[in-house]
Amino acid sequence: MANSTQGANKNEENKSAENKEPSSPIENCEEKLTNTENKITIVFHATGNTPILKSRKLMVKKERKMGDVITFLKKLLNLHPSDSLFLYVNQAFAPSPDQTIKNLYECYGVEGTLPIHYCKSQAWG
Q1: What's the angle, vertex CA 105, arms to CA 101 and CA 109, rounded to 5?
Q2: Which residues, at least 6 apart from 3, have a Cβ–Cβ distance to it below 8 Å?
Q3: Is the pLDDT of residue 94 over 80?
């Protein structure tokens, strides 16, 4: 009879645990998954005499514009805002600064990434 009482107590504990709100680590994981779903991985390739980045991969929100990426990349490379920086998709196509990352990825994405070549002087196109 003691076993049936203990079993009933365990069932009640399981039910109360199921009714509790999810713990914060799980919520954080769900937020991270949601954040990654809204981002696209860009892989940068240096061309010519342009410095190589320490981290070539960058996750960018889909709705960001190429102008935002250019500004951020200039900061990473320690370039002055007035310095020229040319970005190319597929080593040929120079996207306009108002083009969204999502549109570029849908048209030119390769194996889950968007490859972008960058250089300080005009290389292609």
Answers
A1: 145
A2: none
A3: yes
